[in-house]
Amino acid sequence: MPTFPYKNAADYGFLPGNDADANTAALQNALNGGGTVIIGQPGTYDLSGTILLDSYTTLECGNGVFIRRVPTKTTGCCSYAFVNRGAYTRTWDTDITITGLRLICNGNHAMGDTSGLPKRDDGWENPGDHIMGLRGQVSFFYCKNVIIRDFVCMDIVTPSYGIQICTFENFLLENAWIEGEKDGVHLGRGSKFTIRDCRFRTFDDPIALNAFDYTSSNPQMGWIEDGVIENCYDLNQDATVGYFCRILGGCWKRWEPGMMIRHSDAVIHNGRMYRVQMQVDGTKYTSVTPPDFERGFRVLDGINWYMCQDDGEIFDCGCRNIHFKDIFLQKKRDIAIAINFEDNDYAHSIYPGATLPIQEDIVLENIFFEADLSHLLRANTPVNCVKVLNSVIRDCDILLNTLDPLENADWGHTDLLLYGNTWKASSDRTLVACDGERTASVKIGASVVQEDFRPKYRGNITLQETDIPLEKE
């Protein structure tokens, strides 16, 4: 690993009260080439542009340092606040750490207007351009060993996320406080991650594990695996949509002549994945000409395709080995954790005839309810096993249902283990439900019952073991 000296950002002209354009250039100069850059002088620093982060970079913001986004003088808008440099060329960056960043969005989102910027000849985006599907204020794409600590952002504006990372290995987010209109932390494909000691108050999902996603919401698709989410708070808020955690899976097929295509569909052709970006209106199109280009966008048969990824053929995606631990649910929601397929104008998770992916080994441990929930977990995807351990559970259920209509789909079988839980629920509450063609086996043990609790179950469920009365509806 290269050795770098410490740098003081002030020595490069990055100072509170300075012109935003000058500050942007100064901070970029300090960060160029990596090393440890310290912003130590308290104050508010205006930034008008995107800061690029190289490999082996550490950015340390001291107490009282605030980074405020302002529109550029030339385009009047912002793109990302921070992004790794390799995101624009899909080349891997490694060992990037950000500590103590207090970001003020100031009404600026992370999907800037790039209509007036020239495009590169090779089809990739220019620095400053919006990368298709990447929309975090702090974004990483093709990155290893990323650490973000002590991050605060209280004014996320739609359609931006607070932090987004996709195509990654080893990601740690620790001690964050994120509030605003959109997702707090949005993950795409990758492995080995920890989200720890975080507080969220977001109108949309605090945490999104979107292996599959809308075309504008992640740059690539693939499996998200081996993750821990612990000691996190879903803070109370009157108005909300989404879930505490959204888990999205999907599947697609190889391109065939004459196949019907609609917005957000994915196909594989000649070792590359292509996705459709059209009007969000449900219109179906007939694809006659195969997408077979290496970079960027092409219109074929009136269909706007873009090349999404080219590092190996995959035909499905989802999440596996995800452990939620010490979660405090203070916001009233319909669903706390949703394991979803989507089928709407915005996202089409399943191409007809594709093999459904199985989400694997989801563990919920020490979950505390401090507000009303209809469903602790709902899955309309196949999932092999869900464990709920040592939690305090009020009136809610675990619901396994299907995405209709979907012919000849194999929904598999789900094993449910509910162990060591304290039940504070009414006697007529449904505890577990399997709708449609779903089947499940249930084991319940080491329970603590604090009320007259005689729950029910619904659907094709096999009770293998239970220490509480459980009646069939």
Features:
3% helix; single chain; mainly beta; 473 residues; 5-stranded mixed beta sheet; 28-stranded parallel beta sheet; 2 domains
Helix count from the secondary structure assignment: 1
Q: Domains counted in the coordinates: how many?
A: 2
Q: Report the principal-axis shape.
A: globular
Number of strands: 40
**Any low-confidence stretches, pLDDT <50, length ≥5?**
114-118
Strand content: over 45%
| Helix residue percentage | under 10%
- Radius of gyration, in Å, reads 23 Å
Task: Give the distance, in angstroms, between the N- and C-terminal Cα atoms.
Answer: 62 Å
| Global structural class | mainly beta
- Biggest sheet statistics: 28 strands, parallel
Mean pLDDT: 92
Word description of this protein:
This protein is mainly β and 473 residues long. It folds into 2 domains: 49-61 and 73-94 and 112-146 and 155-249 and 316-472; 253-309, no CATH class. It has a 28-stranded parallel β-sheet that branches. Strands 18-20-21-24-23 form a 5-stranded mixed β-sheet, with no helix packed on it. β23 and β24 form a beta hairpin. The longest helix has 12 residues, at 20-31. It is globular. The termini are far apart.
